[in-house]
Design goal:
Length: 126
């Protein structure tokens, strides 16, 4: 089915997001009416495509970012309206108006203490 040009585009991180919560994101990506863009801070385009195929993730584009800020640039350029990632550092420079979702995993959340893990670059205690 062709994608609806008037819908919101979805952006998804690959490592520690799609491979951690495959069933949830596989369903979301496969029913999303807009474009699904996988944005990963890694090298190896063929490996990224192979990983996505193994996970059964349907997508329209895969973009490998060369820096944290490059992810934000891709999100703006691809008109992504909803973005999921597991690293708070990746979320700092995403343009206002993009709905951002931080996926909780062992890399950013201490389950035994029920505390989020942030650096002073990404959070301010209140």
């Amino acid at each position: 089915m062709p994608k609806d040009a008037g819908t919101i585009n979805l952006g998804l991180d690959l490592d520690r997001l799609l491979d951690d919560a495959n069933d949830s994101f596989k369903l979301l990506a496969n029913i999303w009416p807009g474009l699904v863009v996988v944005i990963s801070y890694r090298t190896g385009y063929a490996k990224a495509e192979s990983d996505l195929a193994a996970l059964g993730i349907e997508y329209d584009d895969v973009i490998l970012a060369e820096s944290f800020d490059a992810k934000a640039d891709v999100i703006a350029a691809k008109n992504i309206g909803v973005y999921f990632d597991d690293q708070p550092e990746m979320l700092k420079n995403i343009p206002a108006g993009v709905h951002v979702f931080l996926y909780r995993n062992g890399g950013n959340y201490k389950f035994s203490k029920k505390l989020w893990l942030f650096s002073s670059r990404t959070a301010r205690l209140i």
